[in-house]
Amino acid sequence: MEKQLKLFFEFLENDKKLSSNTLQSYKRDLKQFKRYIEGCEVAYNKVDEEVIQNYVDYLQEIGKKPSTISRSIASIRSFYEYAARKGKVKKDPTQAVKAPKVERRVPCVLTAKEVELLLNQPKTEDLKGIRDKAMLEFAYATGMRVSEIINLDIDDINFKEEFVNCRKANKQRIIPLGKMSVKALKAYTENARNYLIKDENEKALFVNVNGKRLTRQGFWKIIKYYKDQAHIKKDITPHVLRHSFATHLLQNGADLRAIQTMLGHSDISSTQVYMQFQDEGIRDIYQKAHPRA
């Protein structure tokens, strides 16, 4: 199995072009599964539906969340589909196995006032404050994932046409930039970035105080710092800004398909989670607009 896993991981990395984080999830899931079947003394090509179902039961017994179990089964299914195509197994043993139902959680969303409060926290009196202002404005203006933002190069920003070209593997999407975001980005690229970078060949859009590409952890720390400064009680992460971006667009009349495109969702069902917030927006509009409200 070790050899087949190695080939499968190479396939995911080189052919599927999966991100490092996604690839690590596959590795964790499948290495745990490998340990389980080895403990049961079952070869990977002899695994059947009963073994898979027993594994699901085992994960439940040790307290794994339904979302974790569902992801693990999806990883195992992908591996066996690959092995079946390569003729290493006769069939996928996960076909008839149903992962536990995952309840879709309501995403945490900031109000417009909370967003304004958060975005006004960075003091643009020093290089770091100018960068942080640009970064927060950009995250809310585009709804991009933190992994996408930190991987952006400065050439991905079109200041003239006011959009960002978000590239991921062999896909790309164009996302408009609002005036506030463009203003903050220009201030950052003209007055701060050139002083932060140590190597003129550095391509990263957002860099840390050492002039290197900002990390995921660095981005999280910055948001947490300004959340505390703003005395906002909600647990704010980069993904909360993404949720807020989508929700506020929908509440203000944006088309769901357009939001799906900007978010980079392959399936519109992922975008429809924001529909539950639309009623609140419609109610506000009604209260303000209807003469008898």
Provide an overview of this structure.
The chain is mainly alpha-helical. The protein folds into two domains: 2-85, DNA polymerase, domain 1, CATH 1.10.150; 112-289, Orthogonal Bundle (hpI Integrase, Chain A). It contains 14 helices and three strands. A three-stranded antiparallel β-sheet has the order 1-2-3, with no helix packed on it. Helix 1 packs antiparallel against helix 2 (20-39) and helix 2 (20-39) packs across helix 4. It is elongated, with a radius of gyration of 23 Å.
Task: Compose a concise summary of this entry.
This protein is mainly α. The chain is built from 14 helices and three strands.
**CATH homologous superfamily of the largest domain?**
Intergrase catalytic core
Proper CATH architecture of the largest domain: Orthogonal Bundle
Cα-based radius of gyration, to the nearest Å: 23 Å
Q: Estimate the strand proportion.
A: under 5%
What distance lies between the first and last C-alpha atoms, to the nearest angstrom?
Answer: 67 Å
Number of domains: 2
**Which secondary-structure class do the elements indicate?**
mainly alpha
Fraction of residues in H or I helices? 55-70%
**What's the CATH topology name of the largest domain?**
hpI Integrase, Chain A
The level 1 CATH classification of the largest domain is: Mainly Alpha
